[in-house]
UniProtKB/TrEMBL annotation, chain A:
Protein name: Dynein, cytoplasmic 1, intermediate chain 2b
Pfam families: Dynein_IC2, WD40
Broad class of where this protein is predominantly found: cytoplasm
Start-end of each WD repeat: 397-444
GO annotations of cellular component type: cytoplasmic dynein complex
UniProtKB/TrEMBL annotation, chain B:
Cellular compartments per GO CC: cytoplasm; cytoplasmic dynein complex; microtubule
All residue ranges annotated as the Roadblock/LAMTOR2 domain in the record: 4-83
Protein name as it appears in the record: Dynein light chain roadblock
Lineage: Eukaryota, Metazoa, Chordata, Craniata, Vertebrata
Species whose genome carries this gene: Oryzias sinensis (Chinese medaka)
Record has Secreted as a keyword: no
Length: 528, 83
């Protein structure tokens, strides 16, 4: 019964697990996944037959002719392995799905380069040389049913996991942050969210003003000056952009005949957008009308403004509010939004009875409708008041060496009242911090290397303010952290000069307007 | 097939995703968005890890099986979905 001896290895399958069934039959080697995947297998087939007759010894068998043998094998199965054949080790689990095992076996028949060395100590080393599949094989797998099922489920789950942004390893003690790079540790992160631009309406124009809507935190109005390359297009454009949707075009397009130098949402009238133009006209657009041109305009007369209007603002309360506008010849007019044909009140801002103040920027402290601060082209900041016997310029704050470009009064509400503080930015590369109680600057922030075009306090965080400069840099300063350098700084792509900066009312986004007509929205990260 | 490509592209374009590798049960990469060297390296290393993890799970409970493995490190995270 034994075949001719040849140098083949006789592998007898050995049952590793005793099962409960009475008949123990020969089975293919079942390799369970455990740490010793390959054994040198000795197998013995035992065929138990309850019939006692077969338990007799076959002394007259062809076996060996040794005569009476106590035990004999009634059935011998022999599995031959050629000496140099590669052992294909299928790494599947014990209960593979039918489909999978099929494909695995198919693939297993290709010669896999897995060779095992069984050392005396019982350890093994696996030498794994990666095997490539041909393109057709890959395509075959990719088209197979199992793959599609697997991929569909898998991709769904992976996408769900990817969408979860929770960082379970966050350490509130801050020890984690010590290892990270400098800018993360600083706290405020600036990430570009979006960029708004329009081929027809913003190309070749400069963003002159930005304002966020008080009603809808996702709306932003941006005003633009003229496009020199397109003389037939309107000179002044104001666009309302929407941050909430992915649509790249503006929500509303408004234009007028003269360049718009300042714009804003009218505070108690959600449908109105106010604009101050280069010609001195104040225009009013209404998004309820279907017109893109202004619904109301102030007259071009000496009673109103005749110089460019750089500052417009609606101040007051719901029942008693006014539109305040100041032009560069120092004239301040207050208007009622219902009737723009003539100003309710006007005032000449002159310093020491002779020098008219060329106003470039204006700011009202929080909650105050009477007193305000203005910055002028000669580098001084003035406080003024609207009503009363001393209406007009009250005090002068000297400190800047160049025209004042931006002013911002502290507006974050909190337990301590900082409303006497304001910051001013100027062409002299600095941003200065002032208090209305003192005419000398409290502090000067001198980190920039170029004209600083605008600065604004954060409406929610009492120690943060942002400033932008000519070199395309946005700096966010955190006065709790450091007063020498900005806490976060980012260079805007394109290197265009940045003209305006505006925090959103939530304090979580910053809008920047540049000299090429782009409006960039940055998200401000957690500030610790 | 087009769906597979589209889904892969969508996953790959999500923020923070460095690459996607699809591997068959032997550890041979079928589809990948990374370069060849990285793919082969990842496939080999992950294969060993998956084997160990799977055997752990099955030894603790033979009826159980490994379905999802997330390896989170200081710098990044590897997510492995298995059938």
């Amino acid at each position: 019964m034994f075949p001719d001896s040849h140098s083949s290895l006789c592998l007898f399958s050995f049952l590793l697990q005793l099962s409960n069934i009475p008949y123990v039959t020969h089975r293919l080697p079942v390799l369970s996944v455990c740490s010793h995947p390959l054994f040198f297998l000795f197998s013995l087939t035992l065929h138990w037959d309850p019939d006692p007759s077969t338990l007799q010894l076959h002394s007259d068998s062809e076996l060996m002719g040794r005569g009476a043998v106590r035990l004999g094998m009634s059935k011998l199965t022999q599995v031959d392995f050629l000496p140099k054949e590669m052992v294909s080790y299928s790494k599947e689990t014990q209960t593979p799905t039918d489909a999978l095992s099929q494909s695995d076996q198919k693939a297993g028949r290709q010669a896999l380069f897995l060779s095992f060395f069984l050392l005396n100590s019982g350890l093994f080393t696996a030498v794994y040389t990666p095997k490539e599949l041909t393109e057709e094989e890959k395509l075959q797998v990719l088209h197979s049913e199992e793959f599609l099922t697997f991929f569909e489920r898998g991709s769904r789950i992976v996408e769900r996991v990817l969408a979860e942004q929770v960082d379970v390893c966050f350490d509130y003690s801050g020890r984690d942050l010590e290892d990270k790079e400098g800018d993360l540790q600083a706290g405020a992160k600036l990430v570009l969210n979006r960029r708004f631009e329009d081929e027809r309406w913003t190309k070749n124009r400069v963003v002159t003003c930005l304002d966020w809507s008080p009603q809808y935190p996702e709306l932003l109005v941006a005003s633009y000056n003229n496009n020199e390359d397109a003389p037939h297009e309107p000179d002044g454009v104001a666009l309302v952009w929407n941050l909430k949707y992915k649509k790249p075009t503006p929500e509303y397009i408004f234009h007028c005949q003269s360049e718009v130098m300042s714009a804003g949402f009218a505070k108690f009238h959600p449908n109105l957008v106010v604009g101050g133009t280069y010609s001195g006209q104040i225009v009013l657009w209404d998004n309820r009308s279907n017109k893109r041109t202004p619904v109301q305009r102030t007259p071009l007369s000496a009673a109103a403004h005749t110089h460019p209007v750089y500052c417009v603002n609606v101040v007051g309360s719901q029942n008693a509010h006014n539109l305040i506008s100041i032009s560069t010849d120092g004239k301040m007019c207050s208007w009622s939004l219902d009737m723009l044909s003539q100003p309710q009140d006007s005032l000449e801002l002159v310093f020491k009875q002779s020098k008219a103040v060329a106003v470039t920027s204006m700011a009202f402290p929080l909650g105050d409708v009477n007193n305000f601060v203005v910055g002028s082209e000669d580098g001084s900041v003035y406080t003024a008041c609207r009503h009363g016997s001393k209406a007009g310029i009250t005090e002068v704050f000297e400190g800047h060496h160049g025209p004042v470009t931006g002013l911002s009064c502290h507006s974050a509400v909190g337990p301590v009242d900082f409303s006497h503080l304001f910051i001013s930015s100027s062409f002299d590369w600095t941003v200065k911090l002032w208090s209305t109680r003192s005419t000398r600057p409290l502090y000067s922030f001198e980190d920039s290397c170029d004209y600083v075009y605008d600065a604004m306090w954060s409406p929610t965080h009492p120690a943060l303010f942002a400033c932008v400069d000519l070199s395309g840099r946005l700096d966010v300063w955190n006065l709790n952290n450091d007063t020498e350098v900005p806490t976060a700084s980012v260079g805007v792509d394109g290197g265009a000069a940045l003209n305006r900066v505006r925090w959103s009312h939530t304090g979580r986004e910053i809008a920047i307007g540049d000299s090429e007509g782009h409006v960039h929205i940055y998200d401000v990260g957690e500030v610790r | 097939m087009a769906d597979v490509e589209e889904t892969l592209k969508r996953i790959q374009s999500q923020k923070g995703v460095q690459g996607v590798i699809i591997v068959n049960s032997e550890g041979i990469p079928i589809k990948t968005t990374l370069d060849n060297t990285s793919t082969v390296q990842y496939a080999g290393l992950i294969q060993q890890l998956v084997l160990m993890a799977r055997s752990t799970v099955r030894e603790l409970d033979p009826q159980n099986d490994l379905t999802f493995l997330r390896v989170r490190s200081k710098k990044n995270e590897i997510m492995i979905y298995l059938t």
